[in-house]
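Cont'd.
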Amino acid sequence: MRAPQRALISLEGTKSEITGPVFGHNMLNELDNDLILNYARPGEMAIGERILVHGRVRDERGVGVAGALVEFWQANAGGRYRHKKETYLAAIDPNFGGVGRTITDENGFYWFKTIRPGAYPWPNGVNDWRPAHIHFSIFGHGFAQRLITQMYFEGDPMIWNCPIIKTIPDEEAIQRLVAALDMNATIPMDMRAYKFDIVLRGRRSTLFENRKEGN
Amino acid sequence: MVQSLGYLKESPSQTAGPYVHIGCTPNFCGIEGIFEKDLGSGPLYNDKTKGERITIRGAVFDGGGYALKDALIEIWQADADGLYNSPSETRGAADPNFLGWGRNPGDMATGEFVFHTIKPGKVPFKNGVWMAPHITFWVVARGINIGLQTRMYFPEEEEANAADPVLARIEHKPRIPTLIAKKDGDDYRFDIRLQGENETVFFDI
């Protein structure tokens, strides 16, 4: 009911597509990328497996995308979202909101702290469950790069029977949405780490716009 | 074997899901205190912004004719002089009082979205050809696997619309009106139809 029936009309990128909004670091608060604490009452914290999610945003040519706004949202450790329309019986965590944002550094790197979300049942088939996942929204340098996707966790057996994931036709592409456990970045006695790299559309350089970074 | 080109593949898109508000408009869905205000909410202009103030209203309809109540709509547009407030803008500095980007979740009961913005100026295409004034729309929601890009044009710009190189790309001429807003009192109305009769034209850009 929500998929266009007609083919998309291809359009070479005009000024309207290769430009896009850029957001300044000055809009960020200290805890915007700390979901463990950014909704917690003073002295308390969200319940769940403490994890660090980090990675790099690059374009198709492998160039880091600096200053990219990355927004993320997720359910709590029990798979419950904090949303008016959500009625799953798992408990709300009073200290967890489930939303954060950050801006990539000059090399395209980003990181945030959170708790690992739980799997979540949804009314699609009679017994469909979403694997543990974190939603991501990314702005590149051009509005044509605008992307919303989801991150999954290495080793989660739920990945391979999820209808939403199966909308991606090949396994290799699915694997690119699965974050790897990253013991190197783990903070001992504090939190484990997952590494999730994101690739946005690249842009072909034109001879008329001689810019070192390609465009 | 020849050398590998070494290009990376774009991360696959996934649906924004029914709870996109949590991440993109948390205050709107009751998660207050994390962000001061929802990004992209409110008018796109301030007192100092140049240009004609306009209001755009509309909704996103599914194939059954029902308005989506969980869509998220973003717009991206040039300033009154046709300049984009973006590092990728090469023609000069855009109006510093106009970012040109807005985000609206649509009403949870009716699905109606509202943008208070300014009318954009015309933007060059290439080879001396100009595009008619337009606003880029981007729509995500539960059930939409990849964000849908479309454009809104203005009904009073008949001459410019007739000469617009992007509208000219649309082979099926009867589909062009799906991209032209309607006058609705003082406001513009721009309804987006995802599927079926009068399906809005979406672009792959």
